[in-house]
Amino acid sequence: MLKSRKAAVIDEIEAEMREASALIVADYRGLSVASITRVRDGLRPLGATLRVSKNTLARVAAQRTGNDALADLFVGPTAIAFCQGDPAAVAKKLADAARETRILRLKGGLLDGRVLDEDSVKRLATLPSKEVLQAQVVGVVAAPLQTFVTLLSAAPREFVVVLDQIIQKKQAEAA
Questions:
Q1: Is the domain of 96 the same as that of 150?
Q2: Which domain holds residue 143?
Q3: Contact 26, 105 (CB under 8 A)
Q4: pTM for the predicted model, two decimal places
Q5: Distance (Å, rounded) from C-alpha 72 to C-alpha 108?
Q6: How do residues 57-77 score in pLDDT, each as one tens digit?
Q7: Mind listing the pLDDT tens digit for each residue in 27-37?
Q8: Residues 88, 68: one domain?
Q9: Residue spans of alpha helices (H) in the chain
Q10: How many domains does the structure of the chain reveal?
Q11: Other residues' Cβ atoms within 10 Å of the Cβ of residue 128
């Protein structure tokens, strides 16, 4: 590869690292082109891209972005998933691909400036999606409010029931 082309690729990887909210590194050794394409296609709707990269170029880009600790992950065939959206959903998709293919292997990643090892990425993959977590928070906040509303509406409801029973008793006495 020409030196000018290497510099351009390093600049591209560096720009993607700076723009990404998280990145996940995987070993794709043994995957067919069709399998890699399926993984890429599965990541696109999640706001992520998968890039196969030369390790030396990825290391230089990581050093330029101040993520020197990522250098340990760039060993062997390396594919990098750059996340723009929910990193948990991307990790889940990659973990599913690793389970299905039995070839793809998660190496680690970077989330909020922290380097993740393989186990951390797998734990990230087990988290519910951002939407599910938001729904759970809303449910936790709404439950006490719903109980409070039910309690407030119980008094008038009971009053109406008592009035109805008095009316029925008066009608029965009159008949």
A1: no
A2: 129-175
A3: yes
A4: 0.72
A5: 10
A6: 999 999 999 888 888 899 888
A7: 998 888 999 99
A8: yes
A9: 3-19, 33-43, 55-64, 87-101, 118-126, 130-174
A10: 2
A11: 13
